[in-house]
Specification:
109 residues
Length: 109
Amino acid sequence: MAGLLLANVEPDVLGEDPWIAFIHLLQRQEPLMVVLEVAEELVRAGHPVPDDDWMLAAGQQSPAWHQFCLLFLSLRKQNTSALEAFIRQAPLGGELFERIRQRLLSTEG
């Protein structure tokens, strides 16, 4: 439900970029699949995945945000090789998270 709301409310009505609103709603222990589903909904609604500078700044806020940003990167269509160090330095996650990290790294190599 949160994904549908964030994806379909105009940023000026929301008062901020939907990605910023989304990341502020996340808690440290959000289920990975829920985070991915909401992020995918944002992309489907035409909200581009944030740029590299946004990812780097958001990822510095906390280890959890760093992991969330890596998940967001996995939804990008364009090259993410400029963020290889960022991807490698993300805190360890569960099996699915680590598969996503490895896929990001292998597609850039």
